[in-house]
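Posting this for the archive.
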Amino acid sequence: MEHPARKITKIAREAERVVLLAMRRDDVGTAEIDLIHAVRHHPGITQTELAQALHADKPAIARRTASLERKGYLRREPNPEDGRSQLLYPTRQAEGLRDSKSAAESAFYSYLMAGLDEETQAAFLKALDEVYRRSKEESRRGFPHVKEALEGINHETEG
């Protein structure tokens, strides 16, 4: 049986679809968004490190970085520690893309929240803050409660 809170995941998927529609106007695909995001969070990363971080093969990363460089989202600089590699950095255009993504998400969530009265909005946002706080705490600890629950499920199916 599906957990009722999986609706959070379903809403997040719909928000991602809205973001993708907005990004298509900027000629950026899903994999490119992930790559730009990684470079923004790790400026000066190499293509090899990027391939490892994104669990993608090097040729795919090379194609995407070349495409994003042509489109003006990334720039390369020589790696002072290794003359054979280059370091990747986001451009202002990449930062603008983040703002565009944020605006698309905000518009979608504003639309969703507009269907609720003020009291319901306040209660929902308070509960959402608590759920988010617990999520971050669990993540920082390495998901011990989730792992424990999964082990229990695995033992039930084995027995």
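The mean pLDDT is 89. The longest strand covers residues 74-78.
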